Amino acid sequence: MTDLPMSPLMGQMMDQPLLISTIIEFAARHYGDTEIVSRRVEGDLHRYTYRDCARRSRQLASALGNLGVAMGDRVATLAWNGYRHMELYYGVSGSGAVLHTINPRLHPEQIAYIVNHANDEYLFFDLTFLPAIEAMARHCKTVKGYIALCGRAQMPRESGIPLLLCYEELVEAASPDYAWPQFDERSAAALCYTSGTTGNPKGALYSHRSTVLHAYASSMPNALNVSAHDVVLPVVPMFHVMAWGLPYSVPLSGAKMVFPGPALDGKSLYELFEAEKVTFSAGVPTVWLGLLNHVVQNDLRFSSFRRTVIGGSACPPAMMDTLIDRFGVEVVHAWGMTEMSPLGTACTLMARHDALSPDERRAVLRKQGHAIYGVDMKIVDDDGTELAWDGTTYGHLLVKGPWVVSGYFRDEGGEVLQDGWFPTGDVATIDPDGYLHITDRSKDVIKSGGEWIGSIDLENVAMSHPGVLQAACIGVQHPKWAERPLLVVVRRPGIQEVTREELLAFFSGKVAKWWIPDDVVFTDALPVGGTGKIQKNKLRDAYQDYRLPTA
Ligand code: ADP
Q1: CATH among 1.10.730.10, 3.40.50.300, 3.30.300.30, 3.40.50.1820 for 444-542
Q2: Ranges of CATH 3.30.300.30 domains, the chain
Q3: Does ligand 1 have an atom closer than 6 angstroms to the CB of 395?
Q4: Contact, 70 vs 46, CB < 8 A?
Q5: Closest ligand 1 atom number to CA of residue 333
Q6: Which of 211, 169, 183, 152 is nearest to 56 (CA)?
Q7: Could you tell me which CATH number the domain at 24-263 has?
């Protein structure tokens, strides 16, 4: 960008870099008394304010300086959603170092790989992950010290971890009179690795500028619509794509924050929603499954919950219907990815949709939504030719924008852009109003007789059957058609068992005849990865020799 031409007449506005530290200082000064409530690993509820958070983030930044952490150095976290993790979000990035959030659900070997790849200097962890740290510490060559996110009283008495420090001691000993450094807004701020279902994980390296712009854009009414009137509970973990930017967009909006810590089961979440009067939440569909099961089984209601964002994988229509029709909770279906910070589209309606029938409006809401300013998108064919926005033509989805990666950390994977666009690996249609509908990931597409069958649509139909709890559709080999769809189903317990024949008949009239799966298999559970998504590659391995009845 620095090599762009300058106009002979430049604007006369203050030249302030978009730095992450400005967000927490804004919240502390303008919404200083607004609360951050956290369920701690210790089990209790902790509460303090944005003013406290800013003070302790400055103390942490100062402590990092005392440890010798310099600008650009990587500092890792292995932690749940909580106030100490939030302080790390601001203290680390604000000091000019880079916050590397690690997904603790990854295999320890993968974690060690990521830590070494990132050259992490320090690693902060919640006590839950002490055994994992003990197991992998000797493989993490670059880490100079491990900091337990707890007070002196909770510190492990014995551990084989080299240089184990106590977070509370570190923070309390440091001065709050720390002045946030000023630097180029394009400096690296945070690092997040994609879960890498194939190959090694790759790092998306966010900048201060990309993070602040994403926080602005994602809080707009057409996106997450966060305001100072909200109480926000991010269920989406802070170790997965920066909790979709909520640790930035919530303080920027002055909303109250509620962190669930490790207690993500339906009962604990429901109790926290009610106790703290949560109005807005965000998470992947598998989390809502747990919460909704608890609420439905116990015939409960939500007293304050008004709106939720669901993304990360397709929101099953039945889940959307239950939330809207039974509980009066507005559902914003959203799409994005680690490489996009993550938000790309959100599904909120336009004025013209008021003229539609309720069913037609619901059909729009099921899509992944409309681009938000900052993200441009297009669909192309195998040759890269742009395809029509007609709602039926599907192609490879490409995106660009200031919070989309231009390459991976340490150039892993080489050049990734195609003519300046990032290939998402998703297959989609875009309708004339600009609404995106993801039909598949390109590696999950079922190729039947040269035509593509979108597995997500088939799963959505299956999951709208009352007897189905979860469903995944994969392509299995077929002598004539190359591949045909096989539906793998987890039955919903407690009601009359659905049969194969009943389920196949259920598809009639809902999808094109040749899309109807060739067979159904029932299983007790589907393989779920570290980010709560169904691992279709594992299913494909498991059923690679499956013989379809029609084959
Ligand atoms: P990974 O799972 O590879 O680590 P992400 O968590 O960044 O990466 O997931 C991004 C992918 O998740 C998208 O490319 C898309 O395939 C899928 N995805 C995200 N949101 C949705 C959605 N609302 N509907 C369907 N697929 C989605």
Answers
A1: 3.30.300.30
A2: 444-542
A3: no
A4: no
A5: 23
A6: 169
A7: 3.40.50.12780
